[in-house]
Structure formats: structure tokens, C-alpha cells
Amino acid sequence: MSAYHFKNGWILAYEDGQFTARKADVFTDGSRIAGTGQPPEETIQYQEVDARGKLIMPGLINLHTHAYMSFMRNYADDLDFGEWLFQRVMPVEDSLPPECAYWSSLLGFMEMIRTGTTCFMDMHMYAGQPPRAALESGIRAYFGRGLVGEELDVLTDRRFLEAMGEMEQYASERIRFTIAPHAVYSCTPQFYAKAAGEGRKRGLLLQTHLSESDTEVKNCLEKYGRTPVQVLKDSGFLGPDVIAAHCVKLKEEDFEILSSSGTNVVSNPASNAKLGNGFAPALRMKEEGINLCLGTDGAASNNTQNLIREMNLFALIHKGVGRSSVCAPAQEVLSMVTVNPAKALGREGELGVIRKGAKADLVMMDLDELSLFPDNNMISSLCYSADGSEVQSVMIDGEFVMKDHQFLTIDKERVYYEVRKIVRKYLKGGSDEPYQ
Question: Which domains does the chain possess?
Fold first, then answer.
């Protein structure tokens, strides 16, 4: 196991509920942070990393995405949500061989790492392929095989068995798994109830899409006489171990349900806006004490995996919608990609912070990049002026996965080659011409 000494840099510290930037060295020993300031143990031989002119920050946590969709970036744009999902995206997914998801996931991981994300939660549909890619890339991940159906028979349901199989094969300290029923329009209340029971019996987190569009809510009210949030409440699905993505279309009674149940909510501002679904009522959720986090969603709808861009969008959107310049401050938005998702994952103090004993998931930002210069307020700069290009090096679990802008665990050229082949065959019908 490696031990590193990051010297001469600034660190993004989190104390008493606030982020501050201060000069300090950081020491790692194996997969953990050994301390900040003075060397914790003089006997350890540290590899020195000159962090002069750099901000060392905790790795960002993207709490909702579909990394395997990265090959569909800019493929199905400017479409109605229903047409985008049911006529463009799903037919491609149905025709795609599972191994293609391996290469497309690696493409997504590259973009996340390149822009400072070290941990993510993913819902996918190609058993084993995204976890295999994550294992080889070194990134930290929480995977859920997307589940759909009317009844969940754990002895015969193909997707559930696939989920259990990939968990048995790939589960580790760095790669963990969730139970992931897709949405109320693809799973019945009975299915949700059974999925929740099976997940909790195994000590797994639960994730789902929730109240993403007007059509979803309208159809749910017509079918069940209740909102999607109410359906999940009555199914016993909601709770502090649940990560609910989107929550854009909430009725008045939904806020109290989400708050009292302790359910964690992931806002995906770029995806929700681009698909015409609107903006999650985040300010109201904040008032209700709901734990708010950020996600990118997949590159087929975002069209990036850049969580720094998402921070900027969230802050600007809600200041505009709320007509208040102070309603989404940089401090709170930064919390939504660090300490808040760490809480949702049950890993407070271990992820999303730089402190002794926390995981050594670290990002070095170049303070001499034009977007960050001058460094009048480093917390503000991360939210309002950074774009991700400032990320110079990334460490996950105590080991570098990118150093000086070079990927160390992923063969970029091979990924590009394989993804080009996938795009030509499955999006362009074998043509070399750009897709139109």
C-alpha cells in the first residue's frame, strides 16, 4: 500500500458545517487519510507530491447516473421526453450486446475522473459489465441493476438474479451494490414492496427514479389514485436508505412524506431541464429538511458526466427561479456533491471530506487556471467559475487514477476505438458519416 505526502498546497477543509480553504499538507497511508498538517508517523516513508499552487479537495460524489449510456452522447437531443425514452433510447438499449456497456461505462468513468468525481451511484441494465469496468478503472461505485415488473419472484426473476450474481462476483469495499427498481411506470407497488424487503434483508441501499415528469405523475394518479411518492410510501419503500432521483413533479403532500421518511433526493438539473421536465423544487425541499444531493444522470440526456457543471447549473437555476441571490449559496451546493451524498450513502466522515481516517479520495485543482485566478474565494470559484478542466490529478482509495491530466488505469485510445465501433454499428447503421 502506498503512502503520500501532498505538500505546499491548499486544502478544502470541512469543519462545523462549513467549507474553508487553508494552507496545509495532507498525508495518506494506504486507502485512508493519515492526517493533515504535520506527519502523523515519522517512520512512514511518504512519496512526496508537490501541491504548490493547487487546491486539494475531497473527491466529488455523483449520486445518480447511467454511465453505460455515454456512447449515446448527443444522439437523441431536442426531443419530447416520451419520444426520447421510448422511441430512441430504449430501442438502442434493447439491441446493444452487453459487452458494449463495458466500453461505454469506461468512457463515462473517464469523464467523471477528469472532472473530479471519484464516487458515483449508477443504475444499469447490462449485468456485470459496468462493475467490471469500475473494478479495472479504480473508481468508487454503487451499482444497481435496473429492475422492472409486476411481481418480484427472487427465485426466477432474471434481472434480480443478474443483480445478485454481479454483486457476488464484484462486491468489494470500493464497489458496492444497491437494489434498484426502475420507476412507478415500470414497477408495481407490490414489486416495490418486495424489492425493499429483499434489499433491507441484505443490508443494501435502495435507489429509484421518482416523479420525473408530468406524464409519470398523471398516469400514476389515474392508475393508483396516488402520486408516485405516495405509492412508494404505501409500499414501504421510502426511508433513509433510499436515494430517489429527480423528484421534479411533487405535490404538496409529497414534501412531508419525503422529509418524515428521511428519503434522500438527487437533483439532476441539466437532464431535467434538457428533457423539458422542469426544475426540482429544491428550495422547498431544503426548507423541509430533505437531504439534497446532485447527479448528472446519463450522457444521453445531460449530455455530460461533469458534476462541477451541475453545481453551477443548480446554483444559477435556483437563484433565478427563487428570485433570490442568496437562496443557493456555494457552501450549500458544494455540500450537495460531498457531505450530503456521503450521508445518503451512510458514510459521513468517510467520504466527501478531508480528515484523518477518511478515504483517500482526493482531487488536485490547478489554482493557476484562468477560471480560478485570482483565488479571491476558493469555495465560490468551485461553484461559479470552475468547469472541470482545472482538475490536474485524482486519487481514489489511496492510489492515483489520473496524474498530471494522464489516465493511469484506463487506456483512453482503446476506449475511443471501441466506442467508435459501437456508435458506427448501433447508432449510425454501419456508416462512417456523423449521425443526423
Answer: 3-58+352-404 (2.30.40.10), 60-344 (3.20.20.140)
